[in-house]
Amino acid sequence: MKKTLYIFSFLIILFLYGCNLQQNVDSNPGDEEENVEAVQTEEVSETEENTVEENEEDDESTTENEEMIEEEDESDDDRPKQGDYNVYLGGEVIETDDKIIIHGESNLIPGSRVVGEVAVGKNVRYFINPRVEDYDFLADTSELVDEDGNFYMEIEHPGLNAETEVTVKFHFDGQQNDDVIRHYGDRGQNLEGPYIYKHQGEVGGRGPDNIYKKAEVKTSFIPGEEKAVRHFSEPEWYTDVDDIGDPRVWIEVDEINDDGEYFYVTGRSNLIEGSRIEIKRKNLQQAETLVNPDGSFHFKFDYEYVEDAPFVIEFDPSDFQWNIVEETYGAKGQKLVGNLVETNKFNNKQFIQYEVELESQEIEVPDNVELEIEGSDVTMLVPDNILFDFDQYDLKDDAKKTLEEISETLQNSFNKKDLDITINGHTDNTGSKEYNEKLSKQRAEEVKKYLENQLEGSNITFTTEGYGDSKPIASNDTEEGQAKNRRVEIVIHLK
After folding, report:
1. What is the CATH number of the domain that holds 325?
2. What is the Cα–Cα distance from 159 to 170, expressed in whole angstroms?
3. How far apart are CA 275 and CA 353, in angstroms?
4. Is the torsion defined by CA of 282, 283, 289, 290 positive or negative?
5. Coil, helix or strand at residue 24
6. Per-residue pLDDT reduced to its tens digit, 444-492
7. Are residues 83 and 230 in the same domain?
8. Can you give the residue range of the structural domain that contains 204?
9. In this structure, are 290 and 220 located in the same domain?
């Protein structure tokens, strides 16, 4: 019995040991696999996170690069592509001692011919078709654009100390080859954009077959010790004019200025491009110009001081206009309407007149000084008894006050700062001719010295003349007349 119990106990122990052993065997491999899987899962998770971060960084970098590329593309897109009908002209003008150099750029097709022109001349802007003799200097050259649309030109330097205008133009009046003509049209009719203007051919009249399109840019400079570098810039046109060609014509003047040498008048209208308009004063033509594509216009002409004489801008459809202008407004202006319309009483033709309000320039002079205006010359007449004692040329004390007031007028009443002034001395017929000429010259010199001292540092130039009794303004037969003839004239030349 005991033996049986021992055996049973032993079997139970063996069974329990076997179960525990199996449990350990079953449990350990499972833990190792779970640990490996956990480690692998963590590594995968970290790898995925790193990959995601790297991808995000790559995406950000790619996005930034794409944005940069897009910006570059957008920048490039601002300029029309080569061969586009929307033409671009640009570049720079460099002044050297003996040359005007043009480094040009464009989007023109290769082989397009461009013309460079250098012009100097005070009269060239007054009229639409100036003659060669109106220029002080005129030179031009032409070149073909290369594969990239660029071009290079050199022109002789005018060597003149005056406003120098440089023009680059692309036109079709006998200039272009067959490939260029096929692309842009035989009259440039395919050309578009802010650089484009209409113009009349050199021969062929005013008909539509002789109206061309051209691309053109201008810049200007005044030569100096520091050599100028100028960049061509895109013209800026008005974009708010939506009634171009309407027979109810309107004209506005935006600005009128002068520098003592020229008047500058800028304005706008709804006239069609190419309309020829004039600016007049006292019924005398001052200048003419063609209306721009947006209806704007510009005048430049000689400065002349005239009291109470407004400018008048005139547009006459019957006066040597292009056919397209005559068709728009009528060959006799019969289509024109509105409050600016005037009628010629001799032929019943209608035209436009717009009066430009101009503030009169006030010239203040001392009470004892007379003022005379003739053309562009303003003359102050100073009686000699105000300035000098009889038969003397030393200035009186009272004269100095008068000359100080005149100095203030010269400084404040004229826009032009580099005035050219002549001081003329005059006498009556008492005494010899030689003596009177000498005395009148001495008196003029004394006035000059005093004014120069008062205006020290200014750009005013003085010259003197002594005329003696050779230019009387009254009869020398009376004392009153003799008194008028004894005088000093201060003549301001405004031209």
Report:
1. 2.60.40.10
2. 26
3. 14
4. positive
5. helix
6. 999 999 999 998 878 889 999 999 999 999 999 998 999 899 999 999 9
7. yes
8. 79-236
9. no
